[in-house]
Design brief:
With about 450 residues, this protein is of the alpha/beta class. The chain has 20 helices and 15 strands.
Length: about 450
């Protein structure tokens, strides 16, 4: 990920510093969300009165959701604004918050980035609006990402439970069985590359999100956050499992030195020279559109396991809808957020191609029985749904994860282009993250 602008980092420093002595948001009122000061009665009244709600989001399925919402509530005008994806939007949002004007009523925020807004108290705690009632509505990974104690900082919009995508045509040609463990995966990598030096098990040039997701699946928990007290420690057993196996693949040059999401990557996925991907369940749409020539060649399987017989999984990607503290129409904003992420909105977004974060959609017969022509008619959603149920619930990101990810290539990335090992690279990443956090006023340990 590209480094955030100096203005973004500066705004984050100011906002975070202002909140360092504040207590965590959360409602102690047992009647909150049940007709209290900001409960359903107020939301219903706001919907009757109407008004304008501005939504900053890049997710295309929200267009249909907004139209449906306006049809149901004709007094409400939903304005969708694409203020940029990822850190581009976060820069704009932080700038608007710091300036005290221009912030939207709702903002799409990825799970890994939500912490920098919640720690700065710049997003509403949605518990008083009734959000806590959805604690069992969403799958464990997304709900854990948006909630903290009694506070709910956003509502999950989608999710990215991980799965193993593999080119069956390539596997069959070289007599490779689908690996069920990462040790078997390493053996498959060796067999493939020995059979055809142009074929690699996968590509990897270093990616913060992919690395932390696989560490998560391995049981690693390098980040711990308790208010402004933060721990960054990549010495745990789960991280060691990941680095031991991944380092062997790097040392034996079994990973294609190709970055993801460029022309060379799409070409490799199409011609079979990149034979697998371990990635989020949102990937099918990208394969169908970007690798159409390989339709019918690919299949989906559960992630290989670090310990044989286990079913551990992790999230890779996904985002939420949050209501900034600076929102002008908070009741209307919550109403749309609720509509877009649960019930009708969730069903609409899944129909439009999004991957659900709600248990109801993941467990519906229509969803589970969907056949994917791209995967030879396979009912791939069954694998994705099982993965979602097996995501470890106790993962957390740093409250400055956007910055940490921006320096990944300067630290861990060296392991892909020099004699630096992954362990050494992670230690460098850890040290740089600790220094940055302490410089911003957090108390960071390692």
């Amino acid at each position: 990920m590209r480094a955030p602008s100096r203005r973004l980092l500066g705004a984050l420093v100011v906002l975070a510093t202002l909140s360092l002595t504040a207590t965590a948001c959360g409602s102690d009122d047992p009647d909150a969300g049940s007709g209290g000061a900001t409960g359903p009665k107020d939301i219903a009244a706001a919907l009757d009165k109407g008004g304008k709600v501005t939504v900053w989001a890049w997710e295309p399925t929200l267009k249909k959701v907004a139209a449906d919402f306006e049809k149901k509530y004709p007094q409400v005008d939903v304005e969708l604004v694409n203020a940029g994806t990822g850190d581009k939007q976060y820069t704009a949002l932080q700038n608007a918050i710091a300036a005290g004007s221009g912030a939207p009523d709702i903002a799409q925020i990825e799970y890994y980035a939500l912490g920098q807004f919640s720690i700065a108290k710049s997003v509403e705690d949605l518990s008083p609006y009734g959000a806590q009632e959805y604690s069992t509505t969403f799958t464990p990974g997304p709900w854990n990402a948006v909630s903290e104690d009694k506070a709910v900082h956003a509502l999950p919009m989608d999710s990215g439970p991980m799965a193993f995508f593999y080119n069956k045509k390539v596997f069959d040609k070289h007599g490779i069985k689908v690996p069920t463990t990462w040790d078997e995966y390493a053996e498959a990598a060796r067999t493939l590359h020995k059979s055809d030096p142009k074929v690699f098990i996968t590509n990897d040039t270093g990616d913060a999100g992919a690395t932390t997701s696989l560490i998560w699946q391995a049981g690693g928990r390098p980040y711990k956050t308790d208010g402004t007290n933060v721990t960054v420690n990549f010495d745990d057993e789960g991280t060691t499992k990941y680095t031991t196996t991944r380092q062997k693949l790097l040392d034996e040059k079994l990973l294609a030195p190709i970055s993801s999401w460029n022309d060379a990557w799409y070409k490799g996925l199409a011609d079979g020279s990149i034979a697998t991907l371990s990635i989020g369940a949102w990937m099918p749409a990208n394969l169908s559109s970007g690798v159409a020539a390989a339709s019918g060649d690919w299949r989906v399987a559960p992630l290989p396991q670090w310990t044989k017989g286990e079913k551990a999984s992790a999230e890779n990607g996904g985002s939420s809808l949050a209501v900034p503290k600076a929102a002008r129409n908070k009741e209307l904003a919550y109403a749309f957020t609720e509509f877009a992420t649960t019930g009708p909105g969730a069903r609409t977004r899944v129909a439009e191609g999004a991957f659900p974060a709600t248990r109801a959609e993941l467990e519906s017969k229509a969803f589970l029985d969907t056949e994917f022509p791209y995967f030879g008619g396979q009912q791939a959603n069954r694998i994705f749904a099982e993965s979602a149920r097996n995501v470890g619930e106790d993962w957390s990101y740093l409250p400055f994860q956007v910055y940490a990810n921006s320096i990944f290539n300067d630290t861990v990335g060296k392991a892909y282009v020099s004699p630096t090992t992954l362990t050494e690279g992670l230690k460098s990443w850890q040290d740089a993250s600790v220094k940055y956090g302490n410089d911003q006023g957090f108390t960071v340990n390692k």
